[in-house]
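Final report, Chapter 2: Outcomes

The project's central promise was a pipeline that accepts a single protein chain and returns its three-dimensional structure in a standardized token representation, suitable for archiving and comparison. That pipeline is now operational. To close this chapter, we reproduce one record exactly as it appears in the project archive, with the input sequence first and the structure output second.
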Amino acid sequence: MLRALPLLLAVGTIAPLFAAWVVRVLTSDEPAVAIMRQARLFEFVMFGWALFNVALLATVAVACVIVWLMKGPAYVADGYDRLTGTGPL
């Protein structure tokens, strides 16, 4: 999960910001106030979604780091022989 976070952060942040930019470019020549108001509202929603995505992924990253630290290093104290089914006595 921790390895997927950078990709999720990039996609979840760039996609809404790109959508807001596309709406701004497409409605920049329109003189109607209602269209500009709707475009501005859409931009605010997309910026809010990008900020929410960053906050959500930061929370998940903290949880992943806590789990990773609590698990500790992987080591085997007393090995178990899988082939014979016997371990140390």
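Archive annotation: DSSP finds two helices and no strands in the chain.
This record, like all others produced under the grant, will remain available to the consortium after the project formally closes.
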